[in-house]
Protein 1
Amino acid sequence: MIRVAVQPAAIDVAGALAAHDAGGHGASASFIGRVRGDDGLTELFLDHHPVLTAGGLEELATQAAARWKLGALTLIHRIGAMAPGDTIVLVLASSPHRAEALAACEYLIDRLKTDVMLWKRESFADGRVSWVEQREGDHARAGRWM
Amino acid sequence: MIRVAVQPAAIDVAGALAAHDAGGHGASASFIGRVRGDDGLTELFLDHHPVLTAGGLEELATQAAARWKLGALTLIHRIGAMAPGDTIVLVLASSPHRAEALAACEYLIDRLKTDVMLWKRESFADGRVSWVEQREGDHARAGRWM
Amino acid sequence: MLQISYFAWVRERMGVAEEVIALPAGAATVGDLIAWLAARDERGARAFAEPQRIRAALGGAMVGAGASIGDAREIALFPPVTGG
Amino acid sequence: MLQISYFAWVRERMGVAEEVIALPAGAATVGDLIAWLAARDERGARAFAEPQRIRAALGGAMVGAGASIGDAREIALFPPVTGG
């Protein structure tokens, strides 16, 4: 069961977890990314492409399902304006075996950083607004899976 | 915040997650291991040492906290008799940065398999009862962290 | 006609989310189009001052600067992605 | 006196969870004790038939077969662990 969503609404982690776990899987790995309030950040805005962002997430999910034996895969990415503490992304990967669940989860979060059409803009309490630059480390991590 | 528990009671995943997340961490990785009902398994029993099992979990948690910059760490292991679908182990690791949360989570589940005094016994519908043998692969995975 | 959509700081510098243009003569590749936009006006000069920082998707697929635009009807131009 | 506790299939084969013994003469190391238990009776022979599969914790710390028992009051004998 693959579930992919791109949504402006808050991510309901407990609800997504319950839906994902309905199958009762041997091993479930998850990753939750949240907005950090570092340096006086007041808002994180996530720009996206109306068609290609969802397509990119679906493509990643399909690749992960082909690469590992997964019982269930959930990939939810929030878009639009968020406040510190809000959940940006939720990855859930389940498998009969722990190594596959853990690897799929890590693969998805690494590739999300470099392969999906999403752009972060940060606003700070002092009035600064800036688009986040892609980091070299993200490419290095994503490249491990090639 | 480090929380470690060894308990015969069912693991309340949602409650543990809520307690763990109270700090609001940038990145949270989790691993949930459940009893699989493969081959007609009817019961999984987990034997433990009344003192050394908890000590081993605490030692692992301390090592992970020394190795990575973690905002919170939760490690809950169930003991005693369990049915298929029951949660055996819950690992939650949070950090400002995703690579540290993911690595700590994987480290803890790998080392749990080889370093903590716990023994699994399986009972099957056809009457067979057997103690689980340690697998070579578990040692190979745990050895990656040395 | 070619519909161009812009994202993130490329959109901000261009001042529009999308526009429809007649593909200029001589703009055969994605790189040609970016150079033409950079030369067209002040907004384009700001948005495309560093073409190596621009990514493109043609008809839904990521492509390099050397890709031929051909008969494509839609192109998206944007900075490197920063999701996750 | 030395308290020995057994776990998992070692406990099942020994038929008891723990016992207290006077450390036998000549049993200086963990390996010596295991050999003595294997020779003592049928239960011990079954539990310790393959000493390379037995792990030990002395006073709360994992030790090898060559470790000296010394003045320790507690030893735990068990198979390789299978948690997680």
Protein 2
Amino acid sequence: MSVHVQEEPFDAGQVLNKFSAQQEGAGAVVSFTGIVRDVAAGLDHMEIEHYPAMTAKAIQAICDEARERWALTGVQVIHRYGKLSADDPIMMVLTASAHRADAFAAADFLMDYLKSRAPFWKKETTSEGADWVAAKDEDEDALSRWSRG
Amino acid sequence: MSVHVQEEPFDAGQVLNKFSAQQEGAGAVVSFTGIVRDVAAGLDHMEIEHYPAMTAKAIQAICDEARERWALTGVQVIHRYGKLSADDPIMMVLTASAHRADAFAAADFLMDYLKSRAPFWKKETTSEGADWVAAKDEDEDALSRWSRG
Amino acid sequence: MDVVYFAWVRERIGLPKETIETSAQTVADLVAELSSKEERYAAAFADTSALRVALDQELSDFDAQLDGVREVAFFPPMTGG
Amino acid sequence: MDVVYFAWVRERIGLPKETIETSAQTVADLVAELSSKEERYAAAFADTSALRVALDQELSDFDAQLDGVREVAFFPPMTGG
């Protein structure tokens, strides 16, 4: 299990191959890559702020929870902060398991929790100015899918 | 949208990077890689048979259905046939969308359908002999998740 | 009409493909006809619930009509992915 | 006690971090105390339903006790991923 919070870009393909090579007994590897999207007004750049003292700890806790819920051979999370441009990968989640259902569910779960529980904030700068990206109600709602009765 | 049915190995990381680079307006890319697992008796090799006249057509139909159900910027499927060894990637599904929920659902759907509706058959050879992998009831059951009323 | 076989169905019947003359109306009729012909077909088709059929490369079922069909395929449940 | 601010909370208050002396019992007390001190705090804390709070880097809530807490963080809902 590894968590990387970094300013540097990463190569999603390299990360996937390295992660897959480390898995023992995995028949299924799921990756999610989040990419900076351009916006209607034309994105100049995106700035991601985070809370360094909390970030890795919060992500680790979410990964621990995923490993407790599903039979995973491995989990990895990479999340960038700092200045990014359209089409840059922002973050990546990787899960591996003997069977596909566990790998899919865990990656889906990790994404929902990272969206709303990891301390990152996005600010978009366009020709019209700079604005913090608002959290979506649907992202908060998505967490209820995972509540355990 | 592209479908590749091939005997040659592929590099999952390269496939992921190339696919991601082709997406316009995608904020989310999901990849699934299926890998040959070793088995209790020790896998010598796996042989995948397929039905050439039907395979690409069947996969294409499943991809079309996914594109109709979810807002995807792209879909790709690669599936190998022939002789494979433990830890070789067997197949890969990639989906891209503006939002993560569509990309996850489509990849999950594609995997369920490819498992049970694309004409591939796996045969495992171990020190104990060769045996066709049996379909699992749970794979057939998984399809019911996607039925539309 | 071409008849093709895959995986253990192919192995039990002992060939991947054959061209046959038949007046069978449905897939089930064709299965009955082949099964009565030789033991190896009877063995392969013993439990059709464990089999799948495709007509002209489209999944179908054992009640389906063979009228106009050029290729019938028999195989076990798929195990791709 | 250290108090840290992120994103637009940081921008409205005008600083990322400060160390304060307070006898506030709960997060809500601390918010009230800061808001009464200066307009920029009142502006940042106007709608606490739009805010999140972490105590010693763990997500918490506005009713939580501050007893023993070393770092309080205020920020808008996260938008990672």
